[in-house]
Amino acid sequence: DGSQIVWIAPSGGRDRPDPLTGEWYPAPFDTASVDNMRRLADHSGAPGHIYPLALLCYDIMPPPLQVEKEIGERRVISFHGAGLSIAPEIRFSEIAVACENPEEAKKAYAQVLHDSVIEQYNVLKSAIHESRGLEASSPTVSLSQPWN
C-alpha cells in the first residue's frame, strides 16, 4: 500500500534508568530486531524507509524500575512535557559499504540508528528537563513547535 507509519521499539520498549545515575536513556538496540525491521521494509512491496525516532515521555507514565514478568504492572500517571524527534532516513546500504561482512554491517547499522536516537534524546532532555525549549537545538537536531 505505502503511506503507512510503523513504530518499532528495537530494544523492546523497556527503557530503564541507569542504576548508577538514575538517568533515563534509550536501551541498547537489539541487532536482530533492527535487521528484521530492515528486511521487512526491503521486502514489503512498497518502498520502505527507516528513520531514527526519539520519544521522551517517561515522566508521564514511567515503567517500573524493574522489569516485571506479570501482566498488570502498576503505573503512575502524571502531567509532564513530552518530546518527539525524527532524524533523517538512515539507509542500510550506506552503512554496509564500509563493513567487511553482513554481520558487521547489521551491528553497525543498529549502532548508527541507536547513536542517532541518543543524540536526539539528549536534545529533547535538554529542551524539556533543563527548560531550554527550542534553544536546545543542535546543528544536527533542530527542534520546532508547531503551536504557541
Automatic annotation (TrEMBL):
GO terms under biological process: glycerophospholipid metabolic process
Top-level taxon of origin: Eukaryota
InterPro entries in the record: G3P_O-acylTrfase_chlp (IPR016222)
GO molecular function: glycerol-3-phosphate O-acyltransferase activity
SUPFAM superfamilies: Glycerol-3-phosphate (1)-acyltransferase
PANTHER family (alphabetical): GLYCEROL-3-PHOSPHATE ACYLTRANSFERASE, CHLOROPLASTIC (PTHR35695)
Protein name: Glycerol-3-phosphate acyltransferase
